[in-house]
Design brief:
- With 365 residues, this protein is α/β, with parallel strands linked by helices.
- 40% of the residues lie in helices and 19% in strands.
- Strands 8-7-6-5-4-3-10-9 form an eight-stranded parallel β-sheet. Strands 11-12-13-14-15 form a five-stranded mixed β-sheet. Strands 1-2 form a two-stranded antiparallel sheet.
- A hairpin with a 2-residue loop joins strand 14 and strand 15.
- Helix 3 runs parallel beside helix 5.
- The longest helix has 18 residues.
Length: 365
């Protein structure tokens, strides 16, 4: 038998990481990879930010991050933390005092880039503030903002520089007795991302990892890059929490993350659509039909697989693993469940009848 491409759940590196809590969400220690996103609204507009967080929560987001760019955003941040349905992580750059202020105002976690936060005295002040509130810190090292001393080391590759920088800060945090830490080492390159996280997981195996491709691009390109990199890492058992950054509505990030987790068989929140690519034997508008089924499945909350097949003879057999589906012939089609036909329906009624069966057979809300 061929060796599996996937690391078993019991052997996955994520089972060996220590667990930290971001609000009520466990990260690491064998917990399933959690889904994050980041608000695009201004944090000094709590109403707009909370509205966006509500949409993200409805989509399945579990942890949300918001920017705290200046002291004027802190009051809004406090209101957001108090009313958010999701744990809120403060994203901090340059000014360590903003991290301290965010911790004092209810942050469920802090994200800092030690490469741009300033001296180690400033880092220590943030560690103290997080320790006092018992909240985690994500050490977020980015390829574009490495510590200048590490960036100047020509003997190191970029993945080595990212891991070296991260490891140096981990050791400093450990020296301060603070281990409530999540690590990330992000780049926009897929190969660099994969190599870096594999190296990081091997060298610091006890620390939970936040995975993703930074500056990945717009919806189409960003989806491909994130799924290529993060999919490879998750298949290796690497990654305890994830944000698939896209230049798009952040709800799209959440949708793509869940699709990826579902495709890898790690977690499923919504239905999976199984559909054939069509061929010269297809006698219906299968592309339009599959798109309609996909659209209507967005309102279904059941971890089922739904097939849309173009061949009435082979369809149920090829999609026998699907929970329910349709296989089309000329002007009609068969509704089937677990590979067994239920009834034949006119083409114009196929989709409606499919969803009638879904409603009857599965809890969909």
């Amino acid at each position: 038998m061929a060796e599996s491409f996937y690391v078993s759940a019991a052997e996955a590196p994520r089972t060996r990481t220590r667990q930290v809590m971001v609000g009520s969400v466990p990260v690491g220690g064998g917990a399933p990879p959690s889904v994050q996103s980041m608000c695009t609204t201004h944090t000094d507009d709590p109403a707009a930010t909370l509205a966006q967080i509500g949409r993200l929560a409805d989509a399945g987001c579990e942890i949300v991050r918001v920017a705290v760019p200046n002291a004027g955003a802190l009051d809004g941040f406090a209101e957001i933390c108090a009313e958010s349905p999701l744990p809120v992580v403060a994203d901090i750059h340059f000014d360590y005092q903003l991290a301290i202020g965010a911790a004092q105002r209810g942050a469920a976690g802090l994200r800092i880039n030690p490469g741009n936060i300033g001296s180690l005295d400033y880092v220590d002040a943030v560690i103290d503030a997080a320790g006092e509130k018992n909240i985690p810190i994500r050490i977020g090292v980015n390829a574009g903002s490495l510590d200048p001393e590490v960036a100047a080391r020509t003997e190191l590759t970029l993945p080595q520089k990212l891991v070296c920088s991260c490891e140096a800060f981990v050791r400093h945090f450990e020296g301060r007795g603070f281990s409530n830490v999540v690590l990330s080492t992000k780049a926009h390159s897929v190969p660099v991302t994969i190599e870096t996280y594999r190296m990081l997981s091997a060298q610091l195996p006890s620390y939970p990892l936040h995975v993703g491709v930074t500056e990945a691009g717009t919806l189409r390109q960003g989806t491909v890059k994130n799924c290529a990199a993060v999919g490879a890492l998750l298949a290796d058992g690497i990654g305890d929490t994830m944000r698939l950054s896209l230049t798009a509505d952040p709800v799209e990030e959440v949708d793509v993350a869940w699709e990826l987790l579902s495709a890898l068989g790690l977690r499923r929140l919504r239905p999976e659509l199984v559909s054939c690519p069509t061929c010269g034997r297809t006698q219906v508008n299968l592309i339009g039909m599959a798109e309609e089924v996909e659209r209507r499945l967005r309102d279904v909350r059941a971890p089922i697989s739904v097939a849309v097949m173009g061949c009435v003879v082979n369809g149920p057999g090829e999609a026998r693993d699907a929970d329910i589906g349709i296989a089309c012939g000329k002007g009609k089609g068969v509704i089937f469940a677990s590979g067994e036909p239920i009834r034949t329906v006119d083409e114009s009624q196929l989709v409606d009848e499919l969803f009638s069966e879904i409603e009857q057979r599965f809890s969909t809300r």
